[in-house]
Amino acid sequence: MAAVRLQKLIASAGVCSRRAAEELIRAGRVQVDGRVATLGSSADPETQKVPLDGKPLKLPAEHGYIALYKPRGVVVTLADEKGRDGLVKLLAGYPRRVFPVGRLDRRSEGLLLLTDDGDLAARLLHPRHHVLKRYQVSVRGPVRNADLKALAEGVELEDGVTLPAGVEILERGAEKSRFAMELYEGRNRQIRRMCEKLGYEVLRLVRTRFGTLELAGLAPGAWRELTRGEVKRLREEVRGAEKRMRREGV
After folding, report:
1. Which end of the chain is more exposed for a tag (fewer CB within 10 A), N or C?
2. How does DSSP classify residue 59?
């Protein structure tokens, strides 16, 4: 969030009008990071402390940000014309209308970001920003080293060769193998199609990371609001990607 004039912050916290807030500032009752503020000062409430009379302002969130563990079988939509389970039931009681950032197919599960911050969502989904996604993939039977190498180097699909990916074997058995994959692409059903091309049946697919967010601590169907620090790190990630694009002349 960009810096905002203090009188606007005070008014948005429901303390008083902007005009009355100016008087509070003139009276030296408002601070920014421990220093007495002056009229015309601004602050970023996500990164700076803004107390009034020594007590933190209770500012309403500008946007909603949710990390949700999408269970298997749930469709990533807020309204499904076929009557399938969607996200509305999982988010019952949340006061904002938030939207999913990206997708997970019905059979997949794991971390899903939802927000009403359209600017951040668009920047995270920009195909050239290369936001990292990490998955745990379980396939039937033993997985061959040559196929793990192929997944890492790129697989020829109907919409082109996939970009290089990070691949780490976690478990190899006669009945099932499990490995982690880190992607910067976001093609439709990409991991499933890559595995199918190599002859593997995907038994389970779980997204464990999206950008700087981690799934750890969430049970299937559960959600939590992001902290200001988590939102800040997501914004920093896309800003870094945009800087790289400018340097490369993209």
Report:
1. C
2. P
Strands 166-172 and 160-161: unpaired
Q: Count the helices and strands in the chain (H runs, E runs).
A: 6, 17
Residue owning tokens 């993209």:
250
Which residues carry out catalysis?
105
The pLDDT tens digits for 80-133 are: 556 666 788 898 888 888 999 988 999 999 999 999 988 899 889 887 767 899
Domains parsed from the chain with CATH numbers? 4-56 (3.10.290.10), 65-224 (3.30.2350.10)
What pTM did the predictor assign?
0.75
Distance CA 25, CA 6 (A): 8
Q: How far apart are CA 169 and CA 191, in angstroms?
A: 15
Q: Give the per-residue pLDDT at 81.
A: 59
Residue ranges in the chain modelled with pLDDT below 50: none
